[in-house]
Amino acid sequence: MFIVDSHCDSIQKVDAGKFGIVNPYNYSTRMQQLQFVALFCTWPENSVEDCYRRAVRFLGHFSLAMANESDRVLPVKTYADIEAAFAAGKHAALLTLEGGTGLKGSPEILRRFFHCGARVCGLTWLHNDLGKSNRLEEGEEDTGLTETGRAMVEEGNRLGMIFDVSHLSDQSFWDLAELSAKPIIATHSNFRALCGHSRNLTDDMAREIFRQDGMIGLNLCPSFVHDKPEMQTVEQLFAHLDHCLALGGENHIGFGCDIDGIGHHYPAPLDESCSVHDRLIDFMLTHNYSETLVEKVAGGNYLRFLKKYLPA
């Protein structure tokens, strides 16, 4: 069994000088794992130029970490790279872009990040020149993607980029669903039917992702698991999985845990005393989920998707 986690903010911890990319809590200690490592390309109240510089700095941190931790993890850009990392008995790290503010509206900058290894792109984290994010104020009009955002999608399509919808507004989601040449993915989102947070997906959004052959990664952020603090538990997290299965998403669901990006707060009783992924798998195996389903959710579904859609 292999594990795939489609969202981790480990570069932020590297940037703070606290951790490496691979840590006992964010990678499995029992199985080989592919982690989508988020290259944060935006920040609240930062200028567009500062967001770009932040992303470049994070890219440097990623490159150094891959060199320093090469005994444990290898950077990957293609599915063949993933296979090679696993064959070598190592973990793998795939670079992704989170928030497109630092792209400065420039397809050329998107091309640069692509050539540096970024293979997945989320256009917004906050509202920016590419489109609206989920952070709409009450009464604010959801205008979706801008013309600049649409041009960025066009360039991403030319490159073979996979687009991430997790931080988009509802209208931006549907605009991207129409424009993206490859199936869209929600790297770290849950289901709005169970928790009303705007970061979660409606059932119609989930069905569209399934229709396109895309993927959804379950997010551990407690406020995306349930509206009530006392219900922010692992059991409720897996209620989101059950909801996904009821919608027909058995082959389109995986982990997108958002580790290192949720302030070290987890659904009870999870913590960082050991591998979060190992404990999630143990929970599934002891709660009547079939081994076949566990293998799909742990990583099989994402590996199937990446084999088919990850650009060469």
Describe this structure in words.
Helices cover about 40% and strands about 15% of the residues. It contains 11 helices and 9 strands. It has helices spanning about 10-15, 50-70, 80-85, 105-115, 145-160, 170-180, 205-210, 220-225, 235-245, 275-285, 290-310; strands at about 5-10, 35-40, 75, 90-100, 120, 160-165, 185, 215-220, 255. The strands form 2 sheets. Strands 1, 2, 3, 4, 5 and 6 form a 6-stranded parallel sheet that branches. A 3-stranded parallel sheet has the order 7-8-9. Helix 1 links the parallel strand 1 and strand 2. It is globular, with a radius of gyration of 18 Å.
Key terms for this structure?
312 residues, alpha/beta, 11 helices
Please outline what is shown here:
With 312 residues, the protein is of the alpha/beta class.
What is the number of helices?
Answer: 11
Q: What is the helix content?
A: 40-55%
Q: What letter string, H or E per element, gives the SSE order?
A: EHEHEHEHEHEHEHEHHEHH
Beta-strand percentage range: 5-15%
Our Rg estimate from Cα atoms comes to: 18 Å
Write the layout of secondary structure elements.
Elements: E1 3-8, H1 10-15, E2 33-40, H2 48-68, E3 73-76, H3 79-87, E4 91-98, H4 107-115, E5 120-122, H5 147-159, E6 162-164, H6 170-179, E7 185-186, H7 203-212, E8 215-218, H8 222-225, H9 234-247, E9 253-255, H10 276-285, H11 291-309
Parallel strand pairs: 1-2, 2-4, 3-4, 4-5, 5-6, 7-8, 8-9
